[in-house]
Structures are given as structure tokens and as C-alpha cells.
From TrEMBL:
Species in which this protein is naturally found: Conexibacter stalactiti
Protein name: ABC transporter ATP-binding protein
InterPro entries, A to Z: AAA+_ATPase, ABC_Ni/Peptide_Import, ABC_transporter-like_ATP-bd, ABC_transporter-like_CS, Oligopep_ABC_C, P-loop_NTPase
Coiled-coil annotated residue ranges, if any: none
Gene3D superfamilies (alphabetical): P-loop containing nucleotide triphosphate hydrolases
Main location: membrane
Keywords, in A-Z order: ATP-binding, Cell membrane, Membrane, Nucleotide-binding, Transport
Family per record: Belongs to the ABC transporter superfamily.
Length: 330
């Protein structure tokens, strides 16, 4: 049984211009011990999956279908107390902007005590900071968030996320706002600490090179659906969805710090309701008639198109080894 699971999840945001369907039957699992990279262009739905998995969606969001489960238990059936306990004890979060995520009015030591309990000794707090390789933990414990660099603040956030030994950590672009010089070491720390703790890690990122390096499995999100998922090595070596191919061809690890993926001609869709075809069809170089008419079925693959349970693709052409490409893409 997967530790985290989104199953056919539909999430809509109410906006001034009507409902936006951010997730359109998205399915994703994260097992114990996995580092799952979640990639896709801006607006594809990565953050919405992450926040839905902890039922931390903003007030204008509505879960309109499907289910989210942690350790096999549906979050849709949990009461507020149970949800709070789940978020405190079993899930950890790391966000893009560490200084903005920390409470600006409280010293780091106090914020760690909120997580670990009032009676926690200074030595225990300092040990938590040593584990995230902060070199002067006593000083950091006395500091306010604005007195730390972005990299130090993100180390503190990682310490906070892992302090109660959660079984899964959800990290949404944890290095996107950091200086290029520290991004690598922060990611190494995050992956290393979650591994040491035996926790699963879900990593939303625009940095394909980092995803390739650190993730065991990758999920590609487009138009609110997970359109392809496979072990990382396999996904990068033999991508099957035309969207994944375009993504990898257009950004072969060349994106710069803070840069968003925007490599493919045309713009991603903003869905208003259920979509009758494949959301990528309008931009796809391989699209055939069925792609605009029917929702693609889930295919499990290997290189010959035969069953392969850990490589899943949502594409009408999934079983065609190399679909013919049109000359031009709109
Ligand atoms: N609070 C909100 N209110 C209204 N619409 C929202 C809200 N949050 C997200 N959306 C919309 O939902 C869709 C999915 O957004 P989401 O933030 O999940 O994408 P993302 O893949 O995380 O993008 P990015 O890479 O830019 O972080 C987008 O169309 C976005 O505009
Ligand atoms: Mg996001």
C-alpha cells in the first residue's frame, strides 16, 4: 500500500472568472523509501497535488472528485483534530520561500520547541540543527528568521519538517528561491535527511537535472493529470508521452536557477471543467483524431509496448513505439 496516494483527484478553484479545474483526475502514489519527482510546466497542478495530499488547500478550493489517502486512510473522512495530528506527526513540509514560511516574530529555538514540545532541552534543539549541518547551532537557535540567509533558513525549515520524524516529506520547489551556489547542497541535505529518517520524499521541481540526479521515480503533470510516471532512469532514457519527450528535449538540464519550464510551443491549458480529450492534443506533434475526442486511457508499458507495471502513460499513442510527428506544432 502506498504511503501517499491521490486517486482520480479533481480539484477546482473558485475564481472571479469562474471555476478553474486545477486537477482533472490526477493519480499519484508515493511509497516508503521513494524520492518522487513531480515535474511539469507552471500551472500544471504540481502544488495543488501536494497541498491536497495534506488537505491544506486554500479556502477557494474544492475537492470535486476522487480521494486522497495517507497510509491507506482517506483524508476526506478525517475530522479536524485527526488532520492536525496527521500534519504534525506524519507529514513534513518544505516550501519555496523559507524565510516567508518561518514565523518572523519568533526565534528559531522557540519555533523548534513549538514542534518538539516546550520541555525540549537546548541540547536537543541544537542537535536538530547540527543534523542539517548548521555550523553554529547555538547562535541560530537565538536568531530570528530575517537574521538568516536563505540557505540557512531552508536548513532550519528542513530541520522543522523532519523534527517529529514524519514518514513523508512534501517539498514544493525547495531550492527555487535560493542562491545558485547553495541549491545543490540544500537538495542533497533534504534527500539525505529524508533517507536517513526512512521517510518518503515528494519533490516538486522545475529543475530536471536535479530530479534526474536525486529522484527514484518521476511523475509528469500536465493539465491537472499525471500523464506519465516511471522510475527516473527509465523516464529520462525512454520517455513515452509526447509531452514528456518535448519537455526533456526542450530543457536538457539547461534551465537556470529560478527559471520556470516553458520550453514547448503554445501555452498550457486552463481547464474550466471536465475535458473530453487529451489536454496536450493542441500542442502535440503526434496528435491524431482520437486525441481531441476521447480521454486517453492509462497504459502500462515497456519498450515493446508490453505490460510494465511501473511505467504508466496516459496517451492514445502510448503503445506506438515512435509515433509519427507532424512537421509543425501550432
Ligand atoms: N489559490 C488559487 N486560486 C485560483 N486558482 C489557483 C490557485 N492556486 C492555483 N490555481 C490554479 O490552478 C492551476 C494549477 O496551479 P498549481 O499552483 O497547482 O500549479 P504548479 O504546477 O504548482 O505551478 P508552478 O510550477 O507555477 O508552481 C493553475 O491554473 C493555477 O492558476
Ligand atoms: Mg507550484
Amino acid at each position: 500500500m502506498p504511503y501517499l496516494e491521490a486517486r482520480d483527484l479533481v480539484v477546482e478553484y473558485a475564481t472571479r472568472h469562474g471555476a478553474v479545474r486545477a486537477l482533472d483526475e490526477a493519480s499519484l502514489t508515493v511509497d516508503a523509501g521513494e524520492v518522487v519527482g513531480v515535474v511539469g510546466e507552471s500551472g500544471s497542478g504540481k502544488s495543488t497535488i501536494g497541498t491536497a495530499l495534506a488537505r491544506l488547500l486554500p479556502g477557494n478550493a474544492r475537492i470535486a472528485g476522487g480521494d486522497v489517502r495517507v497510509d491507506g486512510v482517506s483524508l476526506l473522512e478525517m475530522g479536524d483534530d485527526e488532520l492536525r495530528a496527521l500534519r504534525r506527526d506524519r507529514l513534513g513540509f518544505v516550501f519555496q520561500d523559507p524565510i516567508g514560511t518561518l514565523d518572523p516574530t519568533a526565534r528559531i529555538g522557540r519555533q523548534l520547541r513549538w514542534v518538539l514540545g516546550k520541555g525540549t532541552s537546548d541540547a536537543t534543539l541544537a542537535a536538530q540543527l547540527e543534523r542539517v549541518r548548521l555550523s553554529d547551532p547555538e547562535r541560530v537557535l537565538r536568531a530570528f528568521p530575517h537574521q538568516l540567509s536563505g540557505g540557512m533558513a531552508q536548513r532550519v525549515s528542513i530541520a522543522l519538517a523532519l523534527a517529529r520524524e514524519p514518514r513523508a516529506v512534501i517539498a514544493d520547489e525547495p531550492t527555487a528561491s535560493l542562491d545558485a551556489s547553495v541549491r545543490g547542497e540544500i537538495l542533497e541535505l533534504l534527500v539525505g535527511r529524508t533517507r536517513e529518517a526512512g521517510a518518503a520524499l515528494m519533490l516538486m521541481s522545475h529543475d530536471l537535472r536535479a530530479v534526474r540526479r536525486w529522484c527514484t521515480r518521476v511523475a509528469v503533470v500536465y493539465g491537472g493529470r499525471v500523464v506519465e510516471t516511471a522510475p527516473a532512469e527509465r523516464l529520462f532514457a525512454a520517455p513515452r508521452h509526447p509531452y514528456t519527450r518535448a519537455l526533456l528535449e526542450a530543457a536538457p538540464g539547461a534551465e537556470r536557477p529560478g527559471e520556470r519550464l516553458r520550453p514547448i510551443a503554445g501555452i498550457p491549458p486552463v481547464l474550466r471543467g471536465e475535458f473530453g480529450g487529451c489536454a496536450f492534443a493542441a500542442r502535440c506533434a503526434c496528435a491524431v483524431e482520437a486525441c481531441t475526442a476521447q480521454r486517453p486511457p492509462l497504459a502500462r508499458l515497456d519498450d515493446d509496448g508490453a505490460a510494465q507495471p511501473d511505467h504508466e502513460v496516459l496517451c492514445h499513442l502510448a503503445t506506438v513505439a515512435t509515433p509519427p510527428r507532424k512537421e509543425r506544432v501550432a
